[in-house]
Design brief:
With 594 residues, the chain is of the alpha/beta class. Helices cover 46% and strands 11% of the residues. It folds into 2 domains: 55-206 and 423-494, 3-Layer(aba) Sandwich (D-Maltodextrin-Binding Protein, domain 2), CATH 3.40.190; 246-421 and 497-575, D-Maltodextrin-Binding Protein, domain 2 (3-Layer(aba) Sandwich), CATH 3.40.190.10. It has helices at residues 2-10, 14-58, 66-79, 96-113, 124-137, 152-158, 164-169, 214-217, 220-234, 248-260, 279-286, 289-293, 332-348, 358-361, 384-387, 435-448, 451-461, 467-470, 473-477, 485-490, 507-522, 528-545, 561-565, 585-593, and strands at residues 87-93, 116-122, 144-148, 201-213, 244-245, 312-314, 317-320, 372-377, 402-405, 420-428, 497-498, 582-583. The strands form 3 sheets. Strands 1, 2, 3, 4, 8, 9, 10 and 11 form an 8-stranded mixed beta sheet that branches. A two-stranded antiparallel ribbon has the order 5-12. The chain is globular.
Length: 594
């Protein structure tokens, strides 16, 4: 009876307790899980902090202090929390900078943010084809591209790339690095449309500059022989000194001299280039070779109204590339540009140069038998052949025996025109990449261009994008290691080297025209005039068919070529050979410093 009273007083029978026991167990499990989750989060946070400290050490030297790096990398850690465990896919062309991003920066980014990046490195032509396919079909191939800013005219006209300026102000504001510092970029304008909107963000860039064997050019015996060579060619009054060529006439003389003059008993070549039938042969010309010859008009960043492809653009509308429509792609200056290219390749370059592509020719100047190169992409100067111990490119003090200088210009070039080309591989997000994928891809792009990493990235790949890198104490104290490259990037003249620009309405489609026609001319199957005619007429035909979202081409009517050639500016009438002109390298550096 007492037990019964006890049960009654408790108000809870054994059978009722049994029914509620599962609820107690769930409460306990939830409590334990919450504590485990909290401990796990705490541990992850601790691991992330340790990763940041480890990467701060690995990413030295940096333009930032350790404290500033910690602040920036912590921002990436904190803002990326919603995306931990996600994977994004990016792609870039096959140069050293991008291999380092794939092998090193992707690992650092994962350790700090928990976002896994599959950063593929493929040929540049394949990158262009992939982004064109994605923007045309809407099929997601990659979440973000390092795509040349040469395509800016395409991106603004097809309206297929995310407007980064609007994104940074809108949905992407909270994912935009407060330390990004856009004003610190060397050539931000390369990725902007006509209105100044940022459609692409530079990730790496490299100019094409004149490259030469400085150790040979300053040798008294070689200088004396060159003076004798020019005196014999032009007479005593026309003789001149060996130095940096200002124009193509001097470059040509120097190329002839070295090709005919053994150095220390060995055969050398006065010129280097490439000529294999491949897409990169087209880039060799569309990367401003025509503007260096003087094909286009005065005006920066690209000639106005005729640019370096020979395309006339009026009020943002392409109106023609053939001389008959007011363009200059097949004018006298363009034919001269191709003629000299073929002549120099035949006479002064190694015979095997005709079998080379861009990737084959890039390191060839390091072999030791090349005296000069009119058009050296400076990204190749970071190649191991130039820097390894025992390389003929290094003197006994470990310093380069070569130098870089401004690209010599052709006979049609005029003061006020662009001087050369800069490649700017730039982060580009297709519009069909949205939501968290877009945000995570944007974080990855910003990480690769952050001040925490850009100095280290320059040391690896030789492709600077920030002023702070060039002007850093670390680089300035060692600038002799880069043979004039740092002086170039620190000078006001750097702005005269630009990319393809806004006027080319559809880079992927039009660029396909160039290399098959150029290859035929190089092989001697057709004359240079015929090759440039074919390129100009095909560009006009394709532009006439284009129906783009913005600023579609609308071609001028066909006129007799004399109508345009008799007008001021491009297209330009035939001109005679210029007087050769050189400058001592030391005087050039002084001019850059001024």
């Amino acid at each position: 009876m007492a037990n019964n009273n006890c049960n009654q007083s408790s108000g809870l029978s054994f059978s009722k307790v049994s029914r509620f026991r599962p609820h107690f167990i769930w409460i306990i499990l939830i409590f334990v899980a919450a504590n485990i989750s909290a401990l796990s989060a705490k541990q992850n946070n601790k691991d992330s902090d340790q990763n940041i400290e480890r990467w701060i050490e690995k990413l030295q030297p940096s333009t930032l202090t350790t404290s500033q790096m910690r602040q920036e990398l912590n921002w990436f850690k904190n803002v990326s929390k919603p995306f931990r465990g996600k994977t994004i896919k990016s792609v870039a062309e096959d140069i050293k900078t991008h291999y380092w991003e794939s092998d090193t920066l992707a690992k650092a980014f994962f350790d700090i943010t928990g976002i896994r990046v599959e950063h593929e490195v493929i040929g540049e032509g394949a990158v262009v084809e992939a982004i064109l396919q994605q923007m045309s079909t809407g099929k997601n191939i990659y979440d973000i591209y390092v795509n040349d800013a040469d395509m800016i005219g395409t991106h603004l006209r097809v309206n297929g790339a995310v407007n980064l300026s609007l994104y940074m102000k809108g949905k992407g504001k909270s994912f935009t690095n407060p330390y990004l510092d856009l004003s610190d970029f060397l050539n931000l304008e390369f990725g902007q449309d006509y209105e100044g909107n940022q459609l692409q963000l530079p990730d790496q860039q490299f100019a094409n500059l004149y490259w030469f064997r400085h150790d040979w050019f300053i040798r008294p015996d070689i200088k004396a022989k060159f003076h004798q060579f020019t005196a014999k060619k032009y007479g005593k009054s026309g003789a001149y000194e060996l130095g940096v060529p200002i124009n193509w006439a001097a470059y040509e003389d120097i190329a002839e001299f070295f090709t005919k003059t053994p150095i220390d008993g060995k055969k050398v070549y006065g010129h280097m280039d490439y000529g294999k039938k491949s897409p990169s042969l087209g880039w060799r010309f569309t990367d401003s070779w025509l503007s260096i010859a003087g094909v286009g008009d005065i005006g920066l960043p690209n000639g106005r109204p005729v640019d370096e492809w020979g395309i006339r653009v009026e009020n943002k509308i392409p109106v023609g590339s053939s001389v008959a429509r007011g363009g200059a792609t097949n004018g006298p200056a363009a034919v001269y540009a191709l003629s000299k290219y073929i002549e120099w390749l035949d006479k002064y370059a190694p015979p095997e140069a005709k079998t080379w592509r861009w990737v084959d020719s890039g390191p060839q100047a390091a072999r030791g038998d090349i005296a000069q190169h009119v058009f050296q992409y400076i990204t190749w100067l970071s190649h191991d052949d130039f820097t390894r111990e025992g390389s003929p490119m290094i003197d006994e003090k470990g310093k380069p025996v070569w130098r870089v200088a401004p690209t010599p210009h052709g006979r049609y070039w005029e003061e006020g025109m662009k001087v050369g080309y800069q490649d700017a591989g730039s982060w580009t997000i297709p519009k069909n990449v949205k939501g968290q994928k877009r945000a995570a891809a944007w974080l990855w792009a910003q990480f690769c261009v952050s001040k925490s990493v850009t100095l280290k990235k320059f040391l690896v790949g030789g492709t600077p994008i920030r002023k702070s890198t060039i002007h850093s104490k670390y680089v300035q104290q060692r600038k002799d290691d880069w043979g004039g490259m740092i002086d170039f990037y620190a000078s006001p003249d750097e702005s005269h080297w630009t990319d393809t620009g806004l006027n080319v309405p559809h880079y992927p489609i039009l660029s396909r025209i160039w290399w098959p026609n150029l290859a035929r001319a190089i092989k001697g199957e057709i004359a240079p005039q015929k090759a440039m005619d074919a390129i100009a007429f095909e560009q006009d035909r394709l532009m006439a068919k284009m129906k783009l979202a913005k600023h579609s081409p609308k071609l001028n009517k066909v006129r007799d070529s004399s109508y345009w050639l008799n007008k001021a500016g491009a297209p330009k009438a035939e001109r005679s050979r210029a007087i050769p002109e050189t400058m001592p390298y030391e005087d050039l550096i002084k001019r850059w410093k001024r």
